[in-house]
Amino acid sequence: MWTIFNRPVRSVYLIGICGTAMASLAGLLKELGLPVSGSDAGVYPPMSDFLASLEIPVRQGYFPANLQPAPDLVVVGNAIGRGNPELEHALAEGIPYVSMPELIRHFFLPGRRPIVVTGTHGKTTTTSLIAWGLSRLGAAPSFLVGGLPLNFRRNYQLGPGPDFVIEGDEYDTAYFDKGPKFFHYHPRLLVINGIEYDHADIYPDLETIVLQFSRLVNMVPSNGLLAYFGECPRAAEVARQARCPVQSFGLAGHMDWQAVDLCPGEDHTRFRVRLRGRDMGELEIPLAGRHNVQNALAACAVWHHLGHPWEGIRAAMATFLGVERRLTLRGEIGGVRIYDDFAHHPTAIRLTLEGMRQRYPARRIWAIFEPRSWTCRRNAHQHQMEKCFDAADGVILADVFQKEQLPERLRFQPGLAVEAMRGRGREAYFLPSTGQIVEFMAERLKPGDVVVIMSNGGFDDIHHQLLERMRPNHEP
Questions:
Q1: Contact by Cβ (8 Å): 437, 462
Q2: What is the Cα–Cα distance from 476 to 468, expressed in whole angstroms?
Q3: What span, in angstroms and rounded, lies between the C-alpha atoms of 440 and 448?
Q4: Nearest of 250, 166, 233 to residue 195 by alpha carbon
Q5: Res 45: pLDDT
Q6: Rounded CA gap, 238 and 247, in Å?
Q7: What is the DSSP letter of 432?
Q8: How far lies 236's CA from each of 114, 180, 424, in Å?
């Protein structure tokens, strides 16, 4: 019998069940044998299909009647706030409720070794890579990832092994818990992939974010591990406060885990690994970009700390397939390749495009970006946004997503960014609508061009629209 707050839990209801993490939590609860149901305002594929495949009932819209008879426990999604009819009913009726991270800590982490992957960039890829490696190495881990690891074709697993690998987000937990999600995961092994200013909607400045990471580092036990990106001064700052073994990773010569002799290819990167100056051998990861080499080094630090053999690590690395929407090829037509990427921050944009430049040094690269994340919708990174596209030959900025939600004085100005890029001699355009972008690109793309479309949302399915618009031009 599962219990929480000293009360038995025989049924669980998730308000906001169609979020990626909430739907995965529903799957984990189903694997525990618990009856699970939930509701959401937007019930549509792929999450609706995913939940249907698990035979988890999902109700469209939020209505108090959905909680009758009353479940034993309600999980309140991060996007749910006061005024939601189901939440108000649960509060009025005294139905026990928790946040998603709180439930994970209570139901899934006891008796397991939490491996928590954090940082501004690379969390999803690094979490997926560590989980895949542990699976390939026979450790049968549990995991929960914020994206879709292509090796597993689902983003959660409840395994019999000792490890639970989880992506630790610094975003706040719930309307009633404004601390970061990652505080709930009590890391035994902690990865920090660098710390930058992000989540401008909830954090006023970088110092506030660094403080959260400092508190998290203080939670790692003395027999745990902190692996951090040593080329990031903020990560190095918080690492100095650790009371556990600490290992840095990066490409610089003073790193504990260092990658050298990088050899980028079109669909892979080969490099040699040094551990405190000792040559460990060559690795190959089927991904491009220095940032993915850094992600690979973080995984190496975790696997090595857990005692896994180097030959097994090499095999795991070589068979990693990556994560959906991390430079996913959506189609090729007329010699033009169209990629989809989840970039949500100017540094992520820069690293993504630099990786593509390494992959395609002689091709013309077009970058199309939708400012959709709260960080990119605000003007906190206005000047960084003017420079992060430098690895591309041509840049198109769409209008700010739901710009009416922000006053103009706080809003990113894509038109000004384009003017600044042009002033530096770059080809750049501000085209507010998806339709304008599709028509513009369809007339200009040439064989051999590479298009990288970046957004942390659906972007009106622009990838499909562009492919379909180009099709008549290339049909025999």
A1: yes
A2: 15
A3: 17
A4: 233
A5: 66
A6: 13
A7: -
A8: 22, 20, 34
129 neighbors 299 (Cβ within 8 angstroms): yes
257-301 residue pLDDT tens: 999 999 987 778 999 999 999 999 999 999 888 889 999 999 999
Q: Tell me the per-residue pLDDT of 65-114, one tens digit each, with 9 for 90 and over.
A: 999 999 999 999 999 999 999 999 999 999 999 999 999 999 999 999 99
Helices H / strands E in the chain, number of each: 15, 25
Q: Which residues, listed in sequence order, are joined to residue 429 by a DSSP beta bridge?
A: 396
Which amino acid is it at 430?
Answer: F
Cis (ω within 30 of 0) for the bond into 180? no
Q: What is the set of domains in the chain, with CATH numbers?
A: 2-103 (3.40.50.720), 108-318 (3.40.1190.10), 328-474 (3.90.190.20)
Contact indicator for 418, 395 with CB cutoff of 8 Å? yes
Residue written as token pair 């914020």? 146
CA distance 67 to 210: 40
Read off the tokens for 432. 């507010």
Q: Give the three-class secondary structure for 35.
A: coil
Residue pair 101/116 in contact (Cβ under 8 Å)? The answer is no
> Using an 8 Å Cβ cutoff, are 193 and 111 in contact?
no
Please count the residues of the chain.
Answer: 476
Cα-Cα-Cα-Cα dihedral sign, residues 350, 455, 132, 287: negative
Which pLDDT band, with edges at 50, 70 and 90, does 19 fall under?
Answer: confident
Mean pLDDT of the chain: 93
Q: Which of 250, 198, 260 is nearest to 228 (CA)?
A: 250
For residue 323, what are the β-bridge partners? 149
- Which residues fall within 8 angstroms of residue 304, CB to CB, at 6 or more apart? 275, 310, 313
Burial pattern 283-300, b for ≥16 Cβ within 10 A else e, equals: bbbebbbbbbbbbbbbbb
Instruction: Give CA angle at 292 (381, 321), nearest 5°.
Output: 125
